[in-house]
Amino acid sequence: MNARRPEPQSLRGRSVVLSPLAPEDVPELFAAIGRPEVFAGGYGGGPAGLPADADAFAAFVESYYPWSTGIPFLVSTEREDGSRVVLGTTSLGDLDVVNRGAHIGWTAYDPRVWATSVNVECKLLLLGLAFDHGFDRVKLQADAMNGRSRAAITKLGAVFEGVLRHDRVRADGSWRDTAVYSILSEEWPAVRSGLESRLAADTRPLPIPS
Questions:
Q1: So which domain of life are we looking at (predicted)?
Q2: Cβ atoms within 10 Å of 205's Cβ, excluding its own
Q3: What is the DSSP letter of 67?
Q4: Distance in angstroms (rounded) separating the CA atoms of residues 201 and 210
């Protein structure tokens, strides 16, 4: 039986909302993640891939995110007055309905919400979307040199599969090795339980950027 490709839809968690990324979101997204520290770990091709301005970032969004193979999402939260605060982006892409494979990636957050519940909530929502639509394997990956991202993926409960050597060329022309992880459908109940427990234990208020 094939998996089913999800329709673009908004997903709401305890603190975050994932909504299909739209052109009008791009300026706020640039303000959230168009920062050297975001690209330093290998995002978007590494430090040399950081767009120089808003126009360059808009072109980056158009070319980098998996528009044809999945759903890029805007990650946001709400202030007490109901106004939206953009926190970053993530995608469910590389959707292969025949072989039931998917990929959660293209993820970047405002550095002010690193090491908070934001990533846990996003992964819980996207993994649930993938497995609820019949996908059997969800891939997650990171630049092999990005220890922070690799530790976060491992903490989710993903299984390390190996390193793809010289997987792609970084923006500065150097080679990137890619560390690959995955979660299978039979592992999802335990992973989901772990993510839910982490969220329940994290009672810190979300540091909402001004």
A1: Bacteria
A2: 8
A3: T
A4: 26
